[in-house]
Structure formats: structure tokens, C-alpha cells
Amino acid sequence: MILSALVEAPIFAPSLLSADFSDMRSALAKIEDAEADWVHFDVMDGRFVPNLTFGPKMAADIRPLTRRPLDVHLMTVEPERLAPAFASAGADYITFHLEATVHAHRLVQSIRAMGARPGIAIVPSTPAASLSELLPFVDLVLVMTVDPGFGGQALIPTCLEKCASLAASRAERGLGFLISVDGGINLDTIPGVARARADVLVMGSAFFGASEPSAALREARSSYMSARP
User: Fold this and answer.
1) What predicted TM-score, i.e. pTM, was given to this entire model?
2) Which of 61, 152, 158, 196 lies deepest, with the highest CB count within 10 Å?
3) Residue 199 catalytic?
4) Could you give the percent of the chain with pLDDT greater than 70?
5) Res. 2 pLDDT band, cuts 50 70 90
6) Segments in the chain forming alpha helices (H)
7) How many structural domains does the chain have?
8) Given 45, 71, 139, 182, which residue is catalytic?
């Protein structure tokens, strides 16, 4: 497990959901050129969320095109059915939603046995306290700061309170999971994210919609470090 206490700088994970789907090679080149840390890969099934995106073949096809960790976020019902295919496709992190499966602990164990790092995600209406029993077993907790399903939404400020609560629990219990935030992450919201002690920032339109993604990411890193407690 990566100990969040050892993360001296934030981890930025541009989301391919905001990229040009017809030119993924170029999107990944932008991520590499900007020296972003991870590649965020949103999987939507049209059931858990009202949109459709990528499958395991896309993950397998892009895996050779980047050296960055592939951060797969399953916004799907029955994530246990898809996790093996994404592990085989080369996912480094596989995160599923607490709301989407009954046997969350079993799936966490299965993902780790597949050779990937397990993560658990919650939507804005789910309290952070509901994760208490799983926290010792996961490598990542993803706090959705928008209602999942579409890019370009505004961050829901109260969701950052969950990040602060998780960070406090992590310290009190001596745990090492990373705290990730996804939704509405941009220069206006990054200071609040930093103060809430989140470690991983998923950036969509703020990265791919920038005229110069590399410069946008440098500014985002600086903004985070300036606001970090």
C-alpha cells in the first residue's frame, strides 16, 4: 500500500472522459508531456450512471501508450463482473462504488488478488462514515464531488468535508489509503481540496480544455501546494 503520509506532492490524474475520444493517442501524449502522475479512466455502463464510456479493450489498447499508472474507476452495477477484465487489461488501480455491490470487502480482496490496488468510491449522498469497516483494506478512497455520470459539473463544496473527515480518520487509525477527489477540480476549487487534505486530484475539462495543458497542470500544482496545511 502507498502510504499517503509519504506523498509529498499531490497526485494529478487527468481524466480521459474529457479527452477527444477519436484521438486517445494524442490525449495520452498530453498527459505524458505535462508530466501528470496518473491516467484516470472512467468506466460508465448506462445503468449505475446515465452515460456510456469505455470497456476493457480500450484500457488494454492504451496501456502500452503510457508509463503512468492507470486509475480505473468503475461507475457500474455489479463491478465484480468487470474487475477481472480490467485487471487483465493492465489497470493499476481499480475503484468501484460502495453503492453498487453488496459484498464490498470480498471485491476488495479479489482486486488485490488480481494484482491491482483496490479502491472504494462514494457518491455525494453517501456519508464517509459508511466506509469505516473498509478503510483498513483499501489503497484508495474516491470521494465524488459531483453526481457521477457526466464531465464538466461544478464541485459540491460540502463533499470536501468528507475528505477532511477521512484524513482525520486515517491519521487516528494509522492507515495508509490515498484520498482522491473527482468532479469540478479546477484552479478555483483546488485550494479547498488541498485544505481538505485530499491526495489525488482527478482533472477533466480543466486539463483537456486548457489551451496549454502542461501550463495548466503546473499552475494547479502550485495552487495546491500554496494552500496545503
Assistant:
1) 0.94
2) 196
3) no
4) 96
5) very low
6) 24-33, 56-62, 79-89, 104-113, 159-173, 190-195, 205-208, 213-227
7) 1
8) 182
